[in-house]
Amino acid sequence: MTQKYHAQIYVTLRPSVLDPAGTAVKSGLSHLGYTNVDQVRIGKYVEVTLTADDETAARQQLDRICDELLANPVIENYRFDLTSV
Amino acid sequence: MTQKYHAQIYVTLRPSVLDPAGTAVKSGLSHLGYTNVDQVRIGKYVEVTLTADDETAARQQLDRICDELLANPVIENYRFDLTSV
């Protein structure tokens, strides 16, 4: 029996990798008057709905999906929350 | 006294708005053999560190930051989690 799952995937740059887009947003916020913002880091957020036999299978598949397509493991980390729906 | 806060901001397309990037990822996953993926929606994930007087002030400022710069309220929703660090 298959079950439907909803995954919220967060892809972030590794801490050692520079984030020029985040720096640009921080600069923009500073120009808008938000000078109390210390740091901005920009990542990706992906919501995926999929069917799988069980939660273990869903997690294994999501790991492969992230490694192969959604994240660049050289410069990015990912994590995800999984809920059955 | 000011306190340092860490915010995790999620910007997502409104449900009624088409997501061509998400559709492209779903198609890519299908070509890679992941035919059990039903839906993919792509959003933005932003981590912000800021100092504020208290949590209420931090939340108000983050609402303004999201409305003014990070999200397009016509087509996007946002939400954020706030933790003091």
TrEMBL record, chains A, B:
Keyword vocabulary terms for this entry: ATP-binding, Cytoplasm, Ligase, Nucleotide-binding, Purine biosynthesis
EC number, as in UniProt: 6.3.5.3
Catalytic activity as recorded in UniProt: N(2)-formyl-N(1)-(5-phospho-beta-D-ribosyl)glycinamide + L-glutamine + ATP + H2O = 2-formamido-N(1)-(5-O-phospho-beta-D-ribosyl)acetamidine + L-glutamate + ADP + phosphate + H(+)
InterPro entries: PurS, PurS-like_sf
Pfam families: PurS
GO molecular function: ATP binding; phosphoribosylformylglycinamidine synthase activity
Swiss-Prot/TrEMBL GO biological process terms: 'de novo' IMP biosynthetic process
Pathway: Purine metabolism; IMP biosynthesis via de novo pathway; 5-amino-1-(5-phospho-D-ribosyl)imidazole from N(2)-formyl-N(1)-(5-phospho-D-ribosyl)glycinamide: step 1/2
Subunit structure: Part of the FGAM synthase complex composed of 1 PurL, 1 PurQ and 2 PurS subunits.
Name of the molecule in the record: Phosphoribosylformylglycinamidine synthase subunit PurS
